[in-house]
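Researcher: Here's my situation. A collaborator sent me these components and asked whether they could plausibly form a single complex. I don't have experimental data yet, so a predicted model of the whole assembly would be a useful starting point for our discussion.
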Amino acid sequence: MNRNLFRVLTVGTLALTLSFALGRTVSAQTKGEKPATAPATQPAQPQTGEKPGKGDGEKLKPIDLKLPKPAFKGTPKNAPPGTNVEKPADGPRPPFLAPPGVKNVALNKPVTSSDKEPITGSAALVTNGDKEATEGSYVELGPKRQWVQIDLKEPCKLCAILVWHYHASARIYHDVVVQVADDADFITNVRTLFNNDHDNSSGLGLGSDMEYWDTFEGKLIDGKGVTARYVRLYSNGSTADDQNHYTEVEVYGLPAQ
Amino acid sequence: MTRTALVVAVVVAAGAGLALRWPGLTRRPMHGDEAVHAYKFNELWTTGRYDYDPFEYHGPTLYYLTFPAVWLSGARDFGQTTEATFRRVPIVIGVGLILLVLLVADGLGRAAAACAAVLTAFSPALTFYSRYYIQETLLVFFTFLVLAAGWRYVRTRRLGWALLAGAGLGLMHATKETCVIPMAALVGAAVLSALWTRWVGRRPMRLSDVLRPWPLVGAVAASCVVSAVLFSGFCTNPSGPWNSLRTFATYFARAGGGVHEHPWYYYLGMLLYSHTGRAPVWTEALIVVLAAIAAVAALLPAQGGAEYKGLLRFVTFYTLLMTAVYSLIPYKTPWCALGFLHGTVLMAGAGGAALLKWLTRPVARVLVGVALLCGTGHLAWQARQLTTRLEVSQRNPYVYAHPLAGVVQLGDYVGRLAAAAPAGHPPLVKVLADNCWPLPWYLRRMERVGYWGTVPDDPDADVVIVSQGLRAALVEKLRGDYRANPYGLRPDEMLFVYVKRELRAEFERQARRRATPATTRTVP
């Protein structure tokens, strides 16, 4: 009995120490600008569990993310503090740490979309490496819920997904849901990595992530170390118009062997 | 072209126009103006009384014409109506506009009338706004009714046509205050046509040949009776007719522009060439070019029948006057272009027919005929695109101050919050906004909803919806614990919905229980 109690106390103390240490790290990275939802706004760092680098003692390195030119400066207009929307970052995003060898496995990979006849552009623009906020850099899908889907061509362990919808002007895309699956029809082993559909208007389940402003930095979504071949990103219009735009999606990971 | 062929062509064009206009009427969010008119209809429906407001909302014809649509829909109350219930009214009138060309076929020429019917059916702007529950299509229809009945009177000298033209004038007046522009254009066109015909000298024409005292008196009387009956709410509101005259002071002041002020070339640019980014070019230039050909044909000395020239000259002067007046008035909304666009379409029909008639070589005729067919097909394609995929897109030149789908989602969200509330305790919804239309349409089924233009002293409620401008004042006064989310109302204009934590928690509990697909799991 006493031995069990001792084990519980030991594990609890270790867990508290670890969480305190992690909390300090987060605070230091954000320089006191603590966002309301840490998981959604922090860099996707490999942790424990099924993340890449598990138990192999690999040294994590920051990935050199190539960001496009900012298309607008300052705080997005009509920024609504106090609502379920992330506060726009004051400075650059902290470095994204990942095991050596992690790269954008989505680059130039085939993309399909729910809208077979996009209003402008083509689905291929989503993974062509061009993330500038210019005409011709994005695909514009029709109104209501739409998705783009990337076939990574092989199962990959995912560290992070970086998405730019449209960053030529300030806007919030609604019902952003990111799912991965083992099959192209999203029937087998479907897992949700991000969901900010707070009212379930997209019918994919209620999300607990926060809404966010689309900026030139893109939205970094934790890949949580899951293994999948297909990545699908949903959206449902924005605060600027009803269409769904996708400028670029980068998926950082490693082939799953 | 035989008379039978003409009738078949016009009926087929009307069928095609209907097929283009009818589908997917619930897809586009209600425009603010549409929602306002739906509410005005509901007032008439529920109270049985119509009170004309000389400062807003226009005349009553739209509301009275909505009754058949509501009866046919089977809706028993406002909550059972849908967007389609209301939008079917201008669609039917818009199809009637195509059929009405039969009344002027002997004036324009049968081939010209058939062409005009096809172009009316496929004109992107006429198609697009025929799906709007606003007065503009009705005003165009009644104006054309006056023109067509007037023409039939000129041809037959029958009193009935004069009375119908007069009734049409009354209906124009009871539709929208801007009727004074087409009325003035009709009169001006008659005078200019007579002067031009006399100047050209082939067949001097006097207005006194056409205007006989008794038919004129009858037409004026019919106009006054129709207008007075409608504005008085079928004799239940005696001040209505007087207010319908008093209103012109308001509308003359409003013509100055304000937020709807645009340059003189606004309409012409919209119709001739609209292009955004990599989207297709939108243009009704074919109609304008054919109309220009018709204008040349109309103003040249007569070569065909005198009636052909007479009506075409009249329509030409009418269209030119309408275009000039609407372009010069600083106040511009895109749907106001329909008035002169329809005149342009009638001219274009004549222009197309004249072009084919002028060409004597068969090869040239075939080539031009094929080009006209392709151009007409392009118009139909544009109309289809602009009423389906691009119905609310900023790339659509006819989309103007249109609400976003966010307002539909907001209404749906509030409805589902209400469903999650304990039985017998519908949530209290407070809307604090200076202009939240069309939101009231989407909250019409809510039992307890109130609207404020400012933040009241006690703004707390189960659900509080607030505009951007009032949000800071609301946050200062709110005492409860809320969760808030933004919804797009119009481009770059948001509404924020604050939901009490308890209601939100119950909503989440119920949503999580049934919403997530069984095959999907969230990675923690």
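Model: Some features of this prediction you could bring to your collaborator: Chain B touches chain A through 41 residues (CB under 8 Å). The longest helix of chain B spans residues 362-386.
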